Amino acid sequence: MLFPTSLVGSYPQPHWLIDRAKLGQRFPPRVRARELWRVGDELLEEALDDATTLAVQAQLSAGLDIITDGEARRESYSNHFATALDGVDIDNPGMALDRSGEPNPVPRVVGPIRRRQPIAARDTAFLRERTDQPIKITIPGPFTMAQQAQNDYYPDERSLALGYAAAVNEEIHETFAAGADIVQLDEPYMQARAPKAKEYGLEVLSRALQGAPGTTAVHICFGYAAIIHERPEAYSFLPELAQAPVDQVSIETAQSNLDCSILESLPDKTVILGVLDLSDPAVEDPQTVVDRAKRALRYVAPENLVLAPDCGMKYLPRKAALGKLRSLVAGAEQLRNEY
């Protein structure tokens, strides 16, 4: 199929599940933030199952081709994984600067990073049971988690990132074994901390992806539109991913009005192209989706393009999110008819 459609990862969680006002008034949590949940511990797992089912149904009703779990179980894209590892003192967090330059509590690494058990396997199996369509599971990337931690154990940041990469690699293999068709690593800090990414980011990413038995993706971005309002017009770290052992590269282009000529530097990658602007809840018409996709089609073959929102859809009202996804699907259909 030309121009398959997919979320980047997240979909808006219901108001009955999470305090969306609190969620939108703070930086994405790096440590646990149980105060965001409206449901008590004794009912939370059932509520998370129900919210995930709703997110899947919304994607199916909109007509998406590749389905995620909407990250409905997560307080943020990264803390669910980063706080589930050995070697991290979650009761006494550290502090690190967020990509905005503001301090934020983060996991404090006090020993070797180890994975205790599969983290996404149950989520993957739950999603697999609810659709026969291809499914994608997202995992926070090791470079980003190392930037979102206080290192009180490893000799340097590179060593810390490689420790995370080994744990992520185990998780990738078990996530595919649980039924995932695509596993995506979220690496926004490769853009936010490009000099460090250029120093050792590809080494870390290669270690995380070693021997992956299925289709892999990496997502880099400019930060959530709900929190980071100003966008550069170019990526600081993107051509370098041509050398990464990854099949797909997920980027944002809608809000930033990205110069898509940079995509010529990724000739062997499938591009997951953000074509929905999430800084505005207004629903784009399908022609806007088509026009944004065509900016990339000058440089990317049609068979190598997946259409998606920019990242951070969880912050939108659910009605707006569903409307945008329907326009995404309609725009993709127009493009298929043309190409």
TrEMBL record:
Gene Ontology MF, one = 5-methyltetrahydropteroyltriglutamate-homocysteine S-methyltransferase activity
Enzyme category, top tier? transferase
Q: Which residues form the Cobalamin-independent methionine synthase MetE C-terminal/archaeal domain?
A: 3-333
Which cofactor is recorded for it?
A: Zn(2+)
Entry's Gene Ontology BP terms? methionine biosynthetic process; methylation
Is Ubl conjugation found in the keyword set?
no
Which UniProt keywords are listed?
A: Metal-binding, Methyltransferase, Transferase, Zinc
Q: What Enzyme Commission number(s) appear in the record?
A: 2.1.1.14
Protein's recorded name? 5-methyltetrahydropteroyltriglutamate--homocysteine methyltransferase
Which organism encodes this protein? Lipingzhangella halophila
